[in-house]
Amino acid sequence: MAFNAGAYRASAPRGAPGLRFTVYAILAVTLMVLDRRGGWLDRVHYYMDAAVYPIQLAVSSPSRAWHWTSDTLAARDSLEARNAALTARNRELTLRTQRFEALQLENAQLRGLKAALPPVAERWLVAEVVNVELNSQRQRMLLNRGAHNGVFRNQAVLDAAGVLGQTISVSPWGADVILVTDPESGTPVEIERTGVRTIAVGTGDANSLALPYLPTNADVKSGDLLVTSGLGGVYPQGYPVARITEVRHDAVQPLAQITATPLARIDAVREVTLVWFQADLPAAPARDGATGNPALQPQNTPPLEPLPPVSIPRLKSPPPQPPATRDGVPGAPNPQLQPQAQPPATGSQPGPRAPARPAPAKAG
Asked: Do residues 45 and 138 both lie within one domain?
């Protein structure tokens, strides 16, 4: 017992929990302030995407290798027939494009223009699909083009048939795309036949879009084409998005139940197109809340200087007049100020009778 008593030593007191909480809270607030001002988390996310991209590429490599092998081992006759068909189609499209350009120049000359207007798309870049995630909660796509190729956030992504989506995250060598069918995606569209503008919302299905903001009396028909409206700052006006397949009206609900099918081949696409648009054209998407050509917008005018105060003279009330008098006697009514008696009216109203005179006495 003595040995144990001599060997016993009091342990150092631990730090109070309140001190740790205060230190961690101060550190968390400091990190939030620095991230708010300098965007540290975006930078960390940028480098984490760069580090994870090789892993994603390695995971998707077996499927890509299988597709490459199946395409390589295809029959020679089928490849030659396909090549001949594509060559004929390319020749036909080339001739049609040349004809369209000639008609465009002729139309411009007839209107008195010196040159035809340039297209909305300034340039484009073809990207391959590395990975696709299609489920009821997420409709995303990973591309093999990133910031090293000039790709930026909120960039339009198209395929040969229509709009696919837009980029939401960009790494040095890759980009994540949110598809138009994602439940968190909303695409500003308009009905080509009527020009009615609305928003196409993703439903979590690669073959379905919803239009939940149109009233029951809206002029919508099955088969109408939905094109981009040019609002939202991502897509220009006039690009095809979907085609309406079902329209249901319920007398109880104020909004119609409309379903559309995307034109893009979301579940079968392998190559997509990243597009850059010219910002100085009227059909280009509006950014930062501005619409139209900024050169034609009214400039900010300086505020008008306040006018000097103007003093308005107060009108003086007239002095009180003494009461009217008659013959110098105050308080007596003045006959000139009294209303005059009106003459008796002629007609059906009888006039005032004269006082009766006494009859003369008869002589005796």
From this structure: no
